[in-house]
Each structure stands twice: as C-alpha cells, then as structure tokens.
Amino acid sequence: MPDTAKEKATFIVSGVTHSYNQTNALNSIELTINEGECVAIVGPSGGGKTTLLNILNSSIKPSTGKVIIQGKDSTNYTPRELKSVRSRISLIPQNLALVDSFRVWQNVITGKIGQHGFLKLLKNLTIPAKEQLTEIHSILDRVGIEEKLFSITKNLSGGQKQRVAVARSIFQSPAAILADEPVSSVDPARAKSLVELLIKISNEENTTLLMSLHNLELAMEKFPRVIGIRNGTVCFDRSPDQISKKELQELYQLEENEILEDG
After folding, report:
1. How far apart are CA 221 and CA 42, in angstroms?
2. How many helices (H) and strands (E) does the chain have?
3. What's the CA angle centered on 10, arms 206 and 17, to 5 degrees?
4. Between helices 158-171 and 188-205, what is the axis angle to 10°?
5. What is the pLDDT of residue 168?
6. Buried (b) or exposed (e) across 147-162, using 16+ Cβ within 10 A?
C-alpha cells in the first residue's frame, strides 16, 4: 500500500460497512486512494467491488463509517455541494448506461448533466453549440472513434460503445473515474486496449482511476496498485510484485456454500 502521508487523497474510506437485507456487502473497509492513482480492484463476483464503487460515487450511503471525498466527509456536504462533487466523479457502469437511440455526440454530452442541469442538457442535446461538437470530436479522436461522431449508438460494436462511455467520462472533466468491469463483454485484445486507454487518460489528466476487473492478468500487468476484495473484506492492497500466488488463489477459492449456490 502506498505511503499516503505526503499525497493528496481523492477518497478516504474509514470503517465503512454496508448491508443489503441484513447481509454485509462490505465489512469495515479502510482505504485511501490518492489523486492521480491508478488502482485495480479484483475479487470474485459478489465480493463487494460494485458496492464500493457506488459508495465512492455517493450513489449509496454506507451503513456505517465515513467516506472523505476530496478532503470533506460526504455526509457533511449540502445537497448542492454533493451534486457538484458527484459531477466530478465519473462512473462507468457495467452496462455502460448509454442511450442506444442517441447519436454518439449526444451520449457524450450527457456526461455534464450533473454540472448543467436537465434543462440545459435538453437544449444541448437538441441544439449543440459548435464549440461543444468540436470538443467532442477531439475527445472521440483521443479514444479512436472520431468518425463515429454522428453515428447512432445502437449501430456500434461493443468495443466502440465502451469507447463512447470513456469519451463521456473525459467530457465530464472528472477528478476521478470509477469503472465497474468496463471490459467484461469484449475480447482480450480490445479489453487490453481499453484498459491501456483509461490508464493513459488518467496519467495525462492526473485523474484518479479505480477499475474493478474480473481479468486478473490485466490487473496485475497494467496497474501499479491492486486491491483484492472477498466477502466484503480487503484481503490485500499492494503493488502486484508484492502479492503472492497463494493470496490470489485464496481470493478466488470457492467455499462449499458458494459452490452449492453456483449449482
């Protein structure tokens, strides 16, 4: 785990527990994520990865514990302040949350809904400013699909849709990008390409990047810090070269009750 004393934290998670229907999804989580860090979160399905990202995004409140976002306890933000903070935290969900009937530029422009409000967004979706389209075209160029600016999103491939979601995040000018299994539905080559793209953007913009991944090989190869979560508990939080094979095996080893649940 990195030395955080001299660095500025984007997130500090202190004693966070969260439960669904009396079942703990997270258990006393303690984490500090620094500004500009690239961090992979790995672990079995149902281990708590998505819940952690949603708590960092303030989509859900923890049952207990504190989350410090950019130096302030999230529970102390006013509704207006919380909206502003959330507008600077981009979440790329597993389903990408794109509107298939929209053109690509329209999906990208929705990245700033939290900053502009619904009425301004509606105006931008119907009568976009030339400067906005120019900016979006430039962002699409960065992610490799500039020719898709006016394409209908439903006609894109899975990999292209993922890049639209990344472009939407860039347009948001976020302090942090939280990506929840963003490469689960594409082949290994495209998965590697997208992970490398998000890390490149994070490094260029000094944007904090947290990505949950089922692809352990990608996490270990591409990220300087890997957090392993199982049954809502952090099992390890170190650089890949300090994580043993035994720890990785224990992270994914199914217990008898889990085998039965999986059929």
Report:
1. 13
2. 11, 10
3. 140
4. 10
5. 95
6. ebbeeebeebeebbbb
Cβ atoms 210, 198 nearer than 8 A: no
Cα–Cα nearest to 115, from 175, 199, 70: 175
Give the pTM. Answer: 0.89
Per-residue model confidence (pLDDT) at position 116: 67
Query: Given this model, what pLDDT does residue 71 score?
Result: 87
Which residues of the chain form CATH 3.40.50.300? 1-88+175-263
Q: Measured at the alpha carbon of residue 196, what is the angle toward residues 191 and 197, in degrees to the nearest 5? A: 100
Query: By C-alpha distance, which of 54, 16, 45 is closest to 32?
Result: 16
CATH of 1-88+175-263, one of 3.40.50.300, 1.20.272.10, 3.30.70.920, 3.30.830.10: 3.40.50.300
**Chain-wide mean pLDDT for the chain?**
89
**Model confidence at 257: pLDDT above 60:** no
Residue 50 contacts residue 210 (beta carbons within 8 Å): no
Written as six digits, the tokens of 263 are 């059929």
Give the pLDDT band (50/70/90) at residue 255. low
% of the chain with per-residue pLDDT over 90: 66
